[in-house]
């Protein structure tokens, strides 16, 4: 893919903008020390997605943005054995057209043994359905990324 990458302290979901834009040298230093940083993919102001790398906290998350810069898909990976990731949660949201309000969402919570919880929620009128199943989670594993190498994380279809 070889996307253009930008780095910052974090992405503000509310303001839909990066906070604390910084250099790749700053981000690489944080990557090596395990400190938190955010990768903006494709654009500094209108990224297609952003990646929160939080090695010292044990997580990496990828948030995909729609044309209105709303998080429509979020993948949360738990760090296992320092260099391996496990997709432990996926959230898909649909929005009310033209505004930033969520209309519905589906959350998938995965355990390494395959146990999966699926929560489907509609906002108005409110309803919540929850089911449990076992699924093949062999595709939920990934490698903790080397600095600047995030292509495997930014796949929408998992």
Question: How would you portray this structure in words?
Answer:
There is one protein chain. This protein is mainly β and 158 residues long. The chain has a domain at 5-94 and 138-143. Helices cover 6% and strands 52% of the residues. The chain is built from one helix and eleven strands; from the N terminus they run E-E-H-E-E-E-E-E-E-E-E-E. The chain has one helix at residues 24-33; strands at 5-12, 17-22, 37-41, 49-54, 59-65, 71-80, 84-95, 102-110, 115-122, 127-134, 141-143. Strands 1, 2, 3, 4, 5, 6, 7, 8, 9, 10 and 11 form an eleven-stranded antiparallel beta sheet that branches. Strand 4 (49-54) and strand 5 (59-65) form a beta hairpin. The longest helix has 10 residues, at 24-33. It is flat, with a radius of gyration of 16 Å. The mean pLDDT is 96.
